[in-house]
Write a structure and sequence with these properties.
single chain, eight-stranded parallel β-barrel, alpha/beta, three-stranded antiparallel β-sheet
């Protein structure tokens, strides 16, 4: 069915197609996943029904949580959400590169803010594993970034199964500087202290996950893993989008500013994942994302060290059936 719908969706502006698809999903029947043969996966104290989750970005505000649950994901990650609402970057800010099965986005953390997301989550019927991805507002200086993350963590803590710290989007100016040595340790120290307070308050431990960029050098990744291990962070998502245009430079829209996702980021993100596995071993759960659109690419992420995987751009090009295909094919 999706192969017939895709030409219609791709005839729309990308953001319009995105909004239309999510709205339509509310009226679609649920997909049957009773035949999924995958065994449950234990990761950071949670039991995932299978390995395939939804990456952040598709539902930034938690408005479509119950609709997305129909697709059979093992877990769903909402966001990125910021402490205060922000409109993001000017449109157009989302571009398809169909010949490469890729997307370039420079959305800029457009979202309705913390209060709206929490309100939507509280109204949802979804009872599965829920990740909430948090970031800083564009106008928050780097030296005060921890305040934004702490505010977000405190607000979403009781509603999340895990919380992702997004410091790797290329679409918020200087955000990736938070991955560097002069900021990273201090940021995680403050967030970790808040996590301990919240754990005591709610008598419930919510794991923290860091989402990293595929564009960092080996030394930066190594330094990051040392800090992550030191502060007991329990997961790493590898990776966010890339600023590289390797393999797509000849295509329309390739020169647009923003992060590239889809097939062209697969090798880079998998290489990053493999390096992280060397550095952390079995001490931390790794979640692989970037260019997954088949069982072959999903298996490559698992072979590189991931315990779980997430999809986004592959879902846009392959449709909802991709979730079922992966969940059943990763045996």
């Amino acid at each position: 069915m999706y192969s017939m719908l895709r030409p219609l969706l791709f005839s729309m502006a990308p953001e319009s197609a995105h909004a239309f698809s999510l709205s339509a999903l509310h009226y679609a029947p649920g997909f049957c996943f009773k035949k999924t043969k995958s065994k449950p996966i234990e990761a950071f104290g949670l039991q995932f029904p299978h390995a395939v989750g939804l990456a952040a970005g598709l539902d930034k505000n938690g408005e479509h949580l119950d609709a997305l649950a129909k697709l059979g994901f093992s877990f769903i990650e909402l966001g990125t959400v910021t402490a205060r609402p922000q409109i993001g970057n000017p449109q157009p800010r989302l571009f398809r590169l169909p010949d490469a099965h890729a997307i370039i986005n420079r959305m800029g953390f457009n979202n309705q803010g913390l209060d709206a997301l929490v309100s939507h989550v509280k109204k949802a019927r979804y009872k599965g594993i829920l990740g909430i991805n948090i970031g800083k507002n564009k106008d928050t200086p780097l030296e005060h970034a921890a305040e934004d993350y702490i505010q977000c963590l405190a607000k979403v803590y009781e509603h999340a199964s895990y919380v992702t710290i997004n410091i790797s989007s290329p679409n918020t100016p200087d955000l990736r500087q938070l991955q560097q040595k002069e900021y990273f340790a201090n940021l995680l120290s403050q967030i970790h202290t808040e996590q301990i307070k919240l754990s005591d308050k709610f008598q419930r431990h919510v794991p923290l996950v860091v989402k990293v960029s595929p564009d960092e050098d080996i030394e930066t990744l190594k330094q990051m893993t040392e800090v992550i291990l030191n502060y007991g962070i329990e997961g790493i998502i590898a990776t966010n989008t890339t600023c590289s245009r390797t393999g797509v430079a000849h295509l329309p829209y390739a020169e647009e500013t923003g992060g590239l996702s889809g097939r062209p980021v697969f090798d880079l993100s998998t290489q990053c994942l493999r390096l992280l596995k060397q550095y952390v071993g079995d001490a931390i759960t790794l979640i692989g994302v970037g260019g997954i659109d088949s069982c072959e690419t999903a298996r490559a992420k698992l072979d590189a060290g991931a315990s779980l995987i997430q999809v986004y751009t592959g879902l846009i090009y392959r449709g909802p059936g991709l979730v079922y295909e992966l969940a059943n094919g990763l045996q």
